[in-house]
């Protein structure tokens, strides 16, 4: 296989992953008609954790886990709480209160907040191009929501999603600091943090919302989300990051906003007006500018 065709295959694999992640928004919206959001999130990531657990028994990963220091374990526990318990929990709650496209758009605040947090936490200053991206993103958000008329449900949903975006941003900075040392295999980072966060999320969901009877159709959706859209998709994405540049992975990831809009329109009947469409495109372009100047981190 030539270098060009190999690279093209990697790009197509990355696009496949973003498509799988985009379908998650639609599947979750359908499943929320029967399964409470926190319990749903806990079930999805607990099943995904069980699927990935066998990887901890390989010789190299077992050695890494045995040699983990207390500070490493603390960071992994914190990552699990921030990225899975908070970020994923609030995302499922957000999807129970808001249209899928609005949740997707709000999640695009993450790179902006990460860029600002990086100034104070790791002394990493945004470039002029990144600041332009911030301005464009905010302009896109304003265009999408103008005029601002929020129902009680939508207002609550945006508050929940804001908490989720802050948790997601903090977990991104923490994850970068863990991966920067390159001492812990990414699969070990994922398994330990996912295990802690997902079990916490599931217990919280059962205590607060109970464990409902799940229909066969929703059980299939749940298994698909856990096995294909989480365990398999994250594994493939990590593989593509070894080859793709930061710009390529950012552009591919940025297509999710459009993919989700199209899927939500087809399967959920969430219509997008011309104004909202323009706002989405401006915001997506701004979020892209914030990300593309960053160096690709080894995974």
List keywords for this structure.
299 residues; disordered C terminus
Write a brief caption for the model.
The chain is 80% helix and 0% strand. The chain has 299 residues and is mostly helical. It is globular and about 55 Å long.
What does this structure look like?
This protein has 299 residues and is mostly helical. It has one domain. 80% of the residues lie in helices and 0% in strands. The chain contains 13 helices and no strands. It has helices at 3-31, 37-52, 59-66, 70-97, 100-107, 110-121, 128-145, 152-180, 186-209, 216-240, 246-254, 256-268, 274-292. The radius of gyration is 19 Å and the shape is globular.
Assign an overall shape: globular
**Model regions low in confidence, pLDDT < 50 over at least 5 residues:** 294-299
Query: What is the alpha-carbon Rg in Å?
Result: 19 Å
Quickly count the domains.
Answer: 1
Give the helix/strand class.
Answer: mainly alpha
Q: Could you give the distance between the termini?
A: 24 Å
Largest sheet: none
Number of strands: 0
Question: Can you write the helix and strand succession as a string?
Answer: HHHHHHHHHHHHH
Task: Summarize the topology.
Layout: H1 3-31, H2 37-52, H3 59-66, H4 70-97, H5 100-107, H6 110-121, H7 128-145, H8 152-180, H9 186-209, H10 216-240, H11 246-254, H12 256-268, H13 274-292
